[in-house]
Write a structure and sequence with these properties.
- With about 425 residues, this protein is mostly helical.
- About 70% of the residues lie in helices and about 5% in strands.
- The protein has 16 helices and 4 strands.
- A two-stranded antiparallel sheet has the order 1-4.
- A hairpin with a 4-residue loop joins strand 2 and strand 3.
- Helix 7 packs parallel to helix 9, helix 13 packs antiparallel against helix 14 and helix 14 packs antiparallel against helix 15.
- The two termini are about 20 Å apart.
């Protein structure tokens, strides 16, 4: 009979945790990367997105099953069910809308991409929650996983700014302004990723160690944020910083952050928001770069045509583009809530409002560490939702982050186990 060696057992456990943590990091990195346009060739881009997303999904399921084979027993149950169930209801209505969609193929494509990220988030978070139960103290945190993966992707763009500016910059306003993003990613969406990465790395500062690395990544992502020229993302980061200031119990830390913000904020606002005081850009701000008249036209002219159930999942008109006499043509609304209103009508908007309410309520009920992660991540994607694709819009990584948030609050270990589960758990102990 083989002698029991506790030291070898501990080493095996540590190796398993490290290996699983590395895989989970790569998975979330690849999942975010699959939303980028890595090639101007449409066929290559589609292959990367389809094969990449499916590969990541399958691998995530396999990692979950591998954890079950290793030492875990799936004794999790749903909690905060309102958020999860209303999101499923939102997708169910979206699926039903194929029957009246003005472009079934496009609605189906958007729906399946959103559903795919939800399944990914389900197994990804479930794996982490099972590790919390059966491998306590594993040290794998969502803030570290998302923060480091965001940094690596943004570092590519920062390096690309100097190595290949024609690829990594996008010219706007008739070529007068260059914004980081290029053809690979909308600058505002890239700015939102900067906000998400910064929020996660700031939350990581609460944990001991790696201060030099964290500060370096924060500086790089802060620089990338300025280069994207995204006003909404800058606002999101400032709100995140203030949120952490009020959460901190250390007065010296609060004072240091407030002084730093007083120094950094004015030049950042002058460059990113006010665009060096250009009068034309000031007019843009007042109209939210033309969005206000567009939203008015959508609600007053487009919505009355299909008020209750909308034009179909991610559709805002009978044609490919909505266009009013006084606005630009648009395929999406640049506001996630108006997007829902147009594609699923008042019924869909009601479901989304309830879903958002239960998500907010669930976040506030979490312990401090989870709340810091969830609220910090939620702020930049919510602010982005008012002017871009958003958490209920066309497929983007803001949807993925939002799904990771509410899935993180959807699982807890069951208090009462079946007889078979009790035997399995005793064997593990």
């Amino acid at each position: 009979m083989q002698n029991y060696n506790p030291h070898s057992k501990a080493t095996e456990k540590e190796r398993f945790i490290k290996r699983t943590g590395n895989i989970l990091f790569v998975l979330v990195l690849l999942m975010i990367a699959c939303f980028f346009t890595w090639s101007e060739n449409v066929a290559i881009t589609r292959l990367i997105k389809v094969a990449g997303r499916l590969g990541v999904l399958v691998t995530t399921i396999l990692i979950y099953q591998n954890l079950l084979r290793y030492r875990a027993v799936d004794t999790l149950e749903l909690k905060n069910r309102g958020s999860y169930l209303f999101y499923v209801g939102y997708l169910a209505l979206g699926f039903a809308s194929f029957m009246w969609s003005t472009n079934v193929g496009y609605s189906a494509l958007q729906w399946f991409m959103t559903a795919q990220t939800l399944v990914f988030a389900y197994f990804y978070i479930k794996t982490l929650r099972l590790m919390d139960v059966y491998l306590p103290g594993h040290g794998i945190r969502m803030t570290r996983l998302i923060g480091n993966s965001s940094f690596l992707l943004l570092a590519v763009f920062v390096i690309g700014k100097f190595a290949a500016p024609d690829v990594f910059f996008r010219l706007t306003h008739g070529g007068e302004e260059a914004r980081l993003g290029g053809y690979m990613m909308n600058p505002n969406e890239l700015g939102m990723l900067c906000g998400v990465g910064l929020a996660c790395q700031i939350a990581e500062l609460y944990h001991p160690g790696r201060r030099g690395w964290l500060i370096t990544t924060i500086l790089v992502m802060g620089y990338a944020l300025i280069e994207t020229g995204s006003r909404s993302s800058l606002a999101g980061v400032l709100v995140v910083i203030m949120y952490h200031v009020f959460q901190s119990d250390r007065n010296q830390v609060k004072a240091a952050i407030i002084i730093s913000m007083l120094i950094i904020t004015p030049p950042a606002v002058w460059k990113v928001v006010l665009k060096d005081g250009d009068p034309e850009r000031m007019e843009e701000i007042m109209s939210l770069t033309g969005r206000l008249p567009f939203w008015k036209a959508l609600i007053t002219e487009g919505l009355p045509r299909e008020p209750w159930f909308g034009f179909g999942f991610m559709r805002i008109d009978y044609k490919e583009y909505f266009q009013s006499t006084h606005t630009y043509p648009g395929k999406m609304t640049h506001n996630t809530f108006i997007q829902v209103l147009m594609n699923l009508g008042f019924v869909g908007l009601t479901i989304v409002i309830f879903q958002l309410f239960f998500t907010l309520r669930g976040m506030l009920r979490e312990d401090k560490e989870n709340r810091l992660f969830m609220v910090g991540l939620f702020i930049p994607i919510l602010i982005n939702s008012f002017t871009e694709f958003g958490i209920f819009g066309e497929s983007n990584y803001g949807i993925l982050f939002y799904q990771l948030i509410f899935m993180s609050m959807s699982f807890s270990a069951r208090k009462y186990l079946t007889g078979k589960e009790k035997i399995q758990v005793r064997r593990l102990e």
